[in-house]
Amino acid sequence: MSQLTMEKRDLGVTPVVDPPDGYVMRTFRPGDEAGLGRVYAACDLGEGSVEYVRARIIAHPCFKPERVFVVTVAGEVVATAAAWVEE
To answer: Which of 23, 49, 85, 86 has its CA 20 to 30 A from that of 12?
Structure first.
């Protein structure tokens, strides 16, 4: 499984980004698992099931809802990014 990985050591200096019209950026909410699964599957980052997302992402010790961002269009998850901090 390959993916883009970026590292930023100081999250205190993070720019504010306004998404284009029609797109909403927010943090993870319960119920986003299916949408995240579709994004992961489309990008070859996992099998895409709700169970996969719960087992590999949500159950992971680094998971914090406020660090997982989703982008939606008309309420459907179309993109995601996360600040995966190993403490």
So the answer is: 23
